[in-house]
Design brief:
With 241 residues, the protein is an alpha/beta fold. It has a single domain, classed as Glycerol-3-phosphate (1)-acyltransferase, CATH 3.40.1130. The chain has eight helices and seven strands, in the order H-H-H-E-E-H-E-H-E-H-E-H-E-E-H. Strands 1-7-6-2-5-3-4 form a seven-stranded mixed beta sheet, with helices on both faces. Helix 5 links the parallel strand 3 and strand 4. It is globular. The two termini are 12 Å apart.
């Protein structure tokens, strides 16, 4: 497809994406009166809508590998971070899930208002020690309530072929709360690159790894095992459009 065609399709997608944020954000005041179960369905439906819109406008779909590895218990989810795609797909895979994210995201008009209803762990990344304590305390409470915690251990979106050391927050939380880690690898960055207006047609592969048990392991060891699996799986997944 020509660059002009890709740009036109992506423009249509972004218009629909922005409208969906606006419409759902208008529901935000009402959501404060609704029970958690209903709010999670609303948030999940936003992801379903935009994944469908992505397919219709940009011919970009996805496939899931390793569904048998989805746990029944609350876990720490660690996934590589390349685009906005993974924020749409993860709530579809886990029933009750929230995020560790930078608190600045909550201040974004419309988008941040809706994000509040996922009850995330919003941290100040400039205050490292306080952030780790917050992740441990609040994260353990949420895990005890049956809510899985999703963390992007790279700390920010990176390019599809980039590699960075993983931050220890996910491993620290998992060992502190004594819950397993579910590693997830994907290749969304080849189709929805970070900071890219254009979305490319194709099939994103999302791979769910086996549980990484944390008993008897340090946070460093858990983080390394998670990074080893995700990085090896990234190499196995298709690396081009």
């Amino acid at each position: 497809m020509t660059t002009v065609g890709l740009t036109l399709r992506s423009t249509v997608f972004w218009i629909g994406f922005a409208l969906s944020i606006l419409v759902y954000s208008l529901l935000s005041p009402i959501q404060f009166l609704l029970p958690e179960k209903i709010n999670r369905k609303i948030v999940r439906s936003w992801g379903v809508l935009n994944l469908w819109w992505l397919k219709v406008t940009c011919n970009l779909t996805y496939q899931i590998q390793g569904l048998e590895n989805l746990p029944k218990q609350a876990v720490v989810i660690m996934a590589n971070h390349q685009s906005t795609f993974e924020t749409l797909i993860l709530p579809q895979l886990f029933g009750r899930v929230t995020w560790v994210l930078k608190r600045e995201l909550l201040f974004i008009p419309f988008f941040g208002w809706g994000l509040i209803h996922t009850k995330p762990i919003a941290i100040n990344r400039k205050d490292g020690r306080s952030s780790v304590a917050q992740i441990k305390q609040v994260g353990k409470e949420k895990l005890a309530e049956g809510i899985s915690i999703a963390i992007f251990p790279e700390g920010t979106r990176i390019g599809a072929t980039e590699h960075v050391p993983y931050k220890a927050g996910g491993g620290i939380l998992a060992t502190y709360a004594e819950v397993p880690v579910v590693p997830i690898a994907h290749n969304a960055g080849f189709f929805w690159p970070r900071h890219s207006f254009i979305k490319y047609p194709g099939v994103v592969t999302v791979s769910i790894g086996p549980l990484i048990e944390t008993q008897g392991l340090s946070a460093t060891e858990v983080t390394k095992k998670t990074q080893d699996w995700i990085e090896a799986e990234r190499q196995r997944l298709p690396r081009s459009r």
